[in-house]
Amino acid sequence: MTEPVPVIRKLERALADDDFAWSLLLVGEDQTDKLATLTGDLRGPFSASGDGKQITSGFSYWGIGPTIAWANATNDPFYLVMKAGAESFLRHWRKLRPHVENGGFHLVSLGVGTGVKDRTILSDMRRENRDMYYIPVDMSSEMLRMGTLEPVRGARFPASQVLPVQLDFSIADNMEELGQMLGRLVGKDPILFTLTGNTLANFESDEELLSTLTRVLRPQDRLLLEVASTTRLDQETADAAADEYHQTRAFAEFVTSALRYNTDLRIDNEQVKFVGEVEDDDALLVKILWQNATDSEIRMGLPDHTDVVLPVGDTIRLYTTRKYSTARLKRLTEACKLTPVEAIQSQFRYTRRPNPFGLELLLLAPEAAGESAHSLADDIWAT
Amino acid sequence: MTRPTWRTVVSVVTYGLLGLAFVLGVIWFFWPGNSRWEPAVNSLTLVAGLSGIFVERLTAEAERRTEVLRAVADELHENTRLLNDERFSPDAPTSRQVYPRLVVSAVDLALVSGALGLHRDADLVGLLHRWRDTVHLFNRRLDLTEISTFSNTISAAELTAFHRALHRENSYFAATREMLQNLLAKIPQA
Q1: pLDDT averaged over chain B?
Q2: B residues 42..81 contacting A (CB < 8 A)
Q3: Per the CB < 8 Å rule, is B165 touching A380?
């Protein structure tokens, strides 16, 4: 009697030449737990400053509603930062590319986004390594389906070498499991992890997230980190940073979409506040909040059919983002024992006046990588 | 080895002529009857006097070259000592410090003095020019290292990076040490 053949082995042949829009997805978590987490976060204590109830990063993109709102925001021609970011990424990536083009790297994209940046990276890397795998990781299955379309259809990356993974990578245990699974999948081949689009800034504790990611890096692996940067740190600049997000209607629609999609709260865009502040003297923190600006308390229905009372002045933090100073980035990378192999920074040039804001792309190596790291000292003492 | 031979030939001829003039003078003293002794002794002494001028010049030149080469060799040994200083040791602590500088004053003097021969020392002069450039670039790198490590924002990791970069196998420090050893081997023994 012959052994039954596992379905996964037959799947590749079964899907070959099938023009129906199938997409494969490896789900790492029970989605009921995620819904419970979201509900729990919305039951937080009263806070007038956005530090009680909140929608944590990842949930902002969770579900088809927020995914569509995100896609609309990225296509909004008035969202200048997004456009400038896409252009600067191309320039920066070209300079970093030589470090990861050779050596047989696979790509693990953490927070897939629109997939445009992954398309650029994949089309360059695949030229040198035809057998590479592309593993986008995101909490939102809808974002994964949308984000992988760009590299697969746009750059003709073979769908048979793509494995989307639905997982909340901000949870240390999840990341550890992912690291082990990747190790078994690619063996000793190096992996390029990417965290682009200023995703790091969306987390309550950016240091904790970076340290979680660093723990899975093997000496041969690299981390490509893209963050928004600032050259000035004062309240006026923090207000300007908040205004940057305020200017785009599509972005306001996106940040409120998770709340619209998961609760019965009626949201008036006037109740959405963009608050900028200087955080720890080395970064600008922008909190986007919904605030009960009415004269009476509001009852908000949650997905588990319970209600939560929102007193007058109470807030729900919808989105967190930051702009980093060089000092903060240095502190973060040192705290996480990461060595910058290359770092490229450029200022935005779409405004008439000098703009303190820009984007920085860093290629980081774990400390264990040792001498492959490139520093100012190496430049000085090179022959 | 053309010049020492030439100097030897001129010296031998000079002292030979003087010796011969002395012998003829002694013979003339005991048998003064022959009136041709006088011009013979005078002519030999005159020629010896002329060739003696060349002997003196060639000897002074050789001594000057020897002195210059000895000074250069001393300076190179001093530089070897400086490169072996404990501040350059791989076991030195990775703290910020002021490093000793390599010196090239004797090499500079040797190059401008004209004591090194145009053809005979051509290879050595080329090596000394390259060594002079290397030392200037090495000292400049030490300046940059000190400026960077003494800034307020330097971290322990960056100090370690400087220590590692200095002692890397293919660093400028290793290249300088290797060049110094080659140069020492090529300096003629004074």
Answers
A1: 88
A2: none
A3: yes
Question: How far apart are the C-alpha atoms of B137 and A381, rounded to whole Å?
Answer: 10
pLDDT for the residue B54: 87
Cβ <8 Å between B145 and A382: no
Question: What φ, ψ does residue A340 adopt, rounded to 5°?
Answer: -70, 120
Looking at residue B176, its pLDDT comes to: 95
Concatenate the DSSP letters of all residues of A7-30 into one string.
HHHHHHHHHTT--S-----EE-S-
A378 in Cβ contact with A358 (< 8 Å): no
- Which residues in chain A are closer than 8 Å to B168, comparing Cβ atoms? 371, 378, 381
Separation of alpha carbons A52 and A315, rounded Å = 7
Q: Where are the domains of chain B?
A: 2-186
At residue B179, the 3 state secondary structure works out as helix
CATH number of the structural domain A24-33+63-232+324-381:
3.40.50.150
Instruction: State the SS3 of A123-184.
Output: HHHHHHCCCCCEEEEECCHHHHHHHHHHHHHHCCCCHHHECCEECCCCCHHHHHHHHHHHHH
Residues of chain A with pLDDT under 50: 371
Whether residue A248 contacts residue A79, with contact meaning beta carbons closer than 8 Å, is answered with: yes
pLDDT at B170 over 90: no
Using 50, 70 and 90 to split pLDDT, how confident is the model at B67? very high
Which residue in the set B153, B165, B170 is minimally distant from A377, CB to CB? B165
B145 lies within 8 A of chain A by CB = yes
- Sorted by where each begins, the domain ranges of chain A are 24-33+63-232+324-381, 47-53+239-322
Instruction: Sort out which chain B residues have CB atoms less than 8 A from A380's CB and list them.
Output: 141, 144-145, 148, 162, 165
Element (H, E) at A343: strand A338-347
Q: Is the pLDDT of residue B83 over 90?
A: yes
Q: What is the pLDDT of residues B31-60, one digit of tens each?
A: 887 778 888 889 999 998 998 898 888 888
- Are the beta carbons of B170 and A378 separated by less than 8 Å? no
Nearest CA in chain B to A333: B157
Interchain CB distance below 8 Å, A377 and B145: yes
pLDDT of residue A379: 85
What is the pLDDT at residue A97?
87
Q: What was the pLDDT predicted at A371?
A: 46
CB pair distance less than 8 Å for A380 and B157: no
Q: pLDDT, tens digit, for every residue of A74-120?
A: 888 877 777 777 888 988 898 888 888 888 899 999 998 888 899 99
pLDDT for position B1: 47
CB contact at 8 A, A166 and A28: yes
> With an 8 Å Cβ cutoff, are B168 and A380 in contact?
no
Q: Which burial class, exposed, middle or buried, applies to A131 when counting CB atoms under 10 A from its CB (0-12, 13-18, 19+)? A: exposed
